[in-house]
Amino acid sequence: MSQSPLPRCVVVIPAGGVGTRMQSAVPKQFLDIQGIPIIIRTIQTAAAVPAVRHVVVATLPSHMTYLAELLDTYALDHCTSIVEGGTDRRSSVARALEHREIASADVVLVHDAVRPFASCGLFERVIEAAHSHGCAVPVLPVTDTIKVVDATGAVVETLDRSTLRAAQTPQGFRTEILLRAHASYDSVNGTVTDDAMLCERNAVDVMTVDGEVKNVKITKPEDIAWAQSLVD
């Protein structure tokens, strides 16, 4: 029996961060881990996944030339395109979704530029689940007790952590679902922190898959030291 063909996948990477929390003059996505920039490690993994046909990175205009030079240096320019991002994460993703490669994609993954340790296996699980169910998000159980507080800092409620999950990326979507969600976005309804939330607001069911403990978002100085230890 012949296997079903792999879905065609495009990975969108919003990479417009300026590294405020990192307290660095260099944007966090361009910091090195053992001599290789974080964003290059992220793109290398995405490009190594068999179903991934192309990677689209949305970044600031001031970063486009430098990123293009990095892609050339690491021989990733043939499978990666750069577009000018928007004023926030959501608008950067929306601009990446205008790229010509999106039209031929069955599934679009949206992945944080600064999660360089997501495995190819995680990408594959998300692609498969998104292709089957429409939307898929990798998650981890929440181990801390979570308190809801009011404006004064007083505890209002303690949540049942058995029902809570911490979301990661890559998040996967059938292409038409993600395009429709972004097309219906209305800024007066408030910000969205990830694309799954945008789909949730459009009454789309989002399935979960097992995330990975090492798939950490690198945002603070101490994260760099931890990341360096992973590749020592």
Structure description:
The chain is α/β, with parallel strands linked by helices. It has a single domain, classed as Spore Coat Polysaccharide Biosynthesis Protein SpsA, Chain A. Helices cover 30% and strands 23% of the residues. Strands 1, 4, 5, 6, 7, 10, 11 and 12 form an eight-stranded mixed beta sheet that branches. Helix 5 packs across helix 6 (195-201). It is globular, with a radius of gyration of 18 Å. The model has no long low-confidence stretch (mean pLDDT 92).
Number of strands: 12
Share of β-strand residues? 15-25%
In CATH, the architecture is: Alpha-Beta Complex
At the fold tier of CATH, the topology name is: Spore Coat Polysaccharide Biosynthesis Protein SpsA, Chain A
Intertermini distance:
44 Å
Query: In terms of per-residue confidence, which ranges show pLDDT below 50 for 5 or more consecutive residues?
Result: none
**What value does the Rg take, in angstroms?**
18 Å
By CATH, the superfamily comes out as Spore Coat Polysaccharide Biosynthesis Protein SpsA, Chain A
* Tally of alpha and pi helices: 7
The average pLDDT is: 92
Structural class: alpha/beta
Question: Which of globular, elongated, flat, extended, rod-shaped describes the shape?
Answer: globular
Total separate domains:
1
CATH class, please? Answer: Alpha Beta
Helix share, percent: 25-40%
H/E topology pattern:
EEEHEHEHEHEEEEEHHEH
Sheet with most strands: 8 strands, mixed
